[in-house]
Design brief:
Layout lengths: L19 H17 L4 H14 L15 H4 L6 H21 L17 H5 L1 H10 L5 E3 L2 E3 L10 H16 L22
Helix pairs in contact: 1-2, 4-7, 6-7
Bound molecules: heme C.
């Protein structure tokens, strides 16, 4: 069947094709007029059905390309490592910078460097123990001797791991494969606070 279009009397609209919705309105008007003229309303209604099923079917298809893509909106939760490093950074900035400095290089003769520290890199577990229980020994760090006391800095193993892993990554170039975990420090005892 050929596509049927209805010629609209020229009203200067520049368009001479009738769309289905217009056809319906047109048909209803016709129905009213025709019933006045005592023409069978049923035959006009049938004509409407035929007209609307022949024309403009494609216009009614829904465009789905504009629907939001819900999967792209989902945000990625930070990993356990990212969360630990964020905690470590917070602790370092709150508690350690005053002595070991923002760049981790310490103060020569008083506070040893934690950045590229041969002493820390040789035994990171010892570093965890030192921030948990404090340290007062004579130590040589990168060729300099230090013997000032460091008091206990954190109260839990989670905090100690977070700040030491942060120092290892941020100031010593360690990657995550060399990070310490709770399993590595099960034997470390937290000494009672004075
Ligand atoms: C009041 C100053 C002070 C603060 C605050 C402090 N430290 Fe220390 N830190 C020292 C001193 C002094 C030593 C040397 C201790 C010794 O000789 O036994 C030291 C030693 C260390 C060492 C071992 C030596 C080295 O440089 O590798 C590490 C690791 C360390 N501190 C990490 C930390 C971390 C992490 C924090 C924060 C949670 C911290 N320190 C806070 C003064 C401080």
């Amino acid at each position: 069947m050929g596509r049927k279009v209805t010629k609209w009397p020229d009203k200067g609209s520049g368009r001479d094709v009738l769309y289905p919705s217009e056809m319906t309105i047109f048909a209803i008007t016709l129905t009213k007029v025709s019933s006045m003229k005592k023409i069978s309303a049923l035959s006009i209604s049938l004509a409407v059905i035929v007209l609307s099923s022949c024309g403009g079917g494609a216009d009614r298809q829904t465009d789905t390309s504009l629907e939001p893509d819900h999967e792209k909106v989902t945000q990625k939760a930070p990993s356990a490592i990212e969360a630990q490093l964020a905690l470590g950074e917070k602790i370092y900035k709150e508690k350690c910078v005053v002595c070991h400095q923002a760049d981790g290089k310490g103060v020569k003769g008083a506070f040893p460097p934690v950045a590229m520290s041969d002493y820390l890199q040789a035994d990171p577990r010892r570093g965890v123990e030192q921030v948990l229980n404090g340290s007062h020994v004579e130590m040589v760090v990168n060729g300099e001797t230090y013997n000032q006391p460091m008091t206990a800095q954190v109260d839990t193993k989670e905090e100690a791991l977070a700040v030491i892993n942060y120092v290892l990554k941020n100031f010593n170039g360690f990657d995550e494969s060399k990070f310490l975990s709770l399993d590595d420090i099960t034997d470390i005892q937290i000494k009672p606070r004075e």
